[in-house]
Write a structure and sequence with these properties.
138 residues, mainly alpha, globular
Length: 138
C-alpha cells in the first residue's frame, strides 16, 4: 500500500473518532471554545458532523473530486479550530499547575499546519513536496 492511501485511511479514522466524540461527549470541546463563538453547543455539534463527513469523503472510492472536496473541507476545519486550540493552551497554561504544559500544547500547535497539509495531500489536492520538478534527475 502506498503512503497516500495509508495517510488518508489514518486521517479518516482520526476524524471519525473525533467527530463521534464531538457529538457524544461535547463537554471537553465546549470548555475550550472561545467565548466569542456564537451558540457553542451547536458549533461543536456541527464540527462533529463536519469531521464525520470529511472522514467519509476521504474514504469514498467513487469520486476523486469528492475526496478532494473532503480534503479542502478538513483543511479548512483544521484552520478554523486553531483558535480553540490556542484558547485551550492559554487557559491551561494560566492554571496554577499549568495543566498539560508546553510539552503537550506546543506539539499540538505545530501539528495544526501539518494536519492542514495532510488533509490536502492525502486527498490528492496537492502533491507538494513529493512531485518531481521538471528537468530534475531521479
Amino acid at each position: 500500500m502506498k503512503a497516500r492511501p495509508i495517510l488518508r485511511t489514518a486521517m479518516a479514522g482520526i476524524y471519525a473518532v473525533a467527530g463521534t466524540a464531538h457529538l457524544l461527549l461535547p463537554r471537553p470541546f465546549l470548555a475550550i471554545t472561545p467565548k466569542w463563538v456564537p451558540v457553542p453547543a451547536t458549533v461543536i455539534a456541527l464540527t462533529g458532523v463536519a469531521e464525520l463527513c470529511g472522514a467519509i469523503g476521504l474514504l469514498q472510492p467513487f469520486s476523486p473530486r469528492l475526496r478532494q472536496a473532503a480534503g479542502w473541507g478538513l483543511a479548512a476545519y483544521a484552520l478554523c479550530v486553531w483558535p480553540a486550540n490556542v484558547n485551550h493552551m492559554m487557559m491551561d497554561l494560566a492554571r496554577p499547575d499549568h495543566g498539560a504544559g508546553l510539552g503537550y500544547h506546543i506539539p499540538r500547535m505545530i501539528a495544526q499546519p501539518l494536519l492542514i497539509w495532510a488533509a490536502l495531500w492525502a486527498s490528492g489536492v496537492i502533491e507538494w513536496p513529493f512531485r518531481k520538478r521538471p528537468g530534475s534527475s531521479g
